[in-house]
Inverse folding.
């Protein structure tokens, strides 16, 4: 088993006033050549957007972009004529492919929006851009892993597809419950909230551990916890 631990406080940080962002991997002004990616997971940003503020229209190309609201709601508009609001419990997937532009905005006058944005490097470039979002039933992740994203050519029922041999899952784990996770590739465990033990390492809120070269990982809840798992190839 090989593993790498990223504590919450070790992440890069940017405060733009309207946006406060923690960067697990190098992004923008935060550049650390030892923190460029975990396999095909290139970006994991933990963003807080102030009321009535947001990201103006900007381009993306050849990247699988996944957004997961933690609190609040984020309005989305793109060049594929999608105009939607992404809410807590939903997940958004956008395959940028040959190129898209989009904007994201917090329409609330009083409440911040906190969301995670992930970028996964695709296995195929210049695909036709794709967009979808889905509300997932939280009952289906109570003390078990709920698959949210899976490969387009091996799509798991009720999940959203990406152009990579990657999977994203989530679990709401109760205190004292032990579960096992079977790795498909290499797994990056990002603790959204709570406290857990992962193979004898303790993670607290926003800590993460990447694990590879092993088939199964054991996880125990020290508190009621919400855990995100990004399972991706280490190499193309």
């Amino acid at each position: 088993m090989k593993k790498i631990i990223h504590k919450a406080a070790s992440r890069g940080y940017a405060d733009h006033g309207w946006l406060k962002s923690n960067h697990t991997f190098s992004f923008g002004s935060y550049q650390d050549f030892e923190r460029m990616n975990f396999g095909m997971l290139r970006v994991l940003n933990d963003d807080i957007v102030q009321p009535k503020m947001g990201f103006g229209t900007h381009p993306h190309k050849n990247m699988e972009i996944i957004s997961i609201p933690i609190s609040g709601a984020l309005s989305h508009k793109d060049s594929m004529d999608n105009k939607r609001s992404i809410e807590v419990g939903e997940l958004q997937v956008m395959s940028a492919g040959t190129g898209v532009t989009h904007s994201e905005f917090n329409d609330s006058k009083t409440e911040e929006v906190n969301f995670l944005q992930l970028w996964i490097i695709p296995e195929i470039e210049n695909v036709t851009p794709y967009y979808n979002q889905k509300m997932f039933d939280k009952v289906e992740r109570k003390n078990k892993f709920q698959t949210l994203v899976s490969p387009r050519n091996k799509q798991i029922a009720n999940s959203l597809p990406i152009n990579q041999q990657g999977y994203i899952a989530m679990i709401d784990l109760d205190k004292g419950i032990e579960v096992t996770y079977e790795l498909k590739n290499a797994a990056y465990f990002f603790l959204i909230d709570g406290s857990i033990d992962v193979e004898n390492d303790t993670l607290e809120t926003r800590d993460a551990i990447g694990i590879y070269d092993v088939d199964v990982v054991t996880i125990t809840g020290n508190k009621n916890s919400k855990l995100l798992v990004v399972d991706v190839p280490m190499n193309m």
In short: The CA atoms of residues 35 and 165 lie 22 Å apart. The chain is about 0% helix and 55% strand.
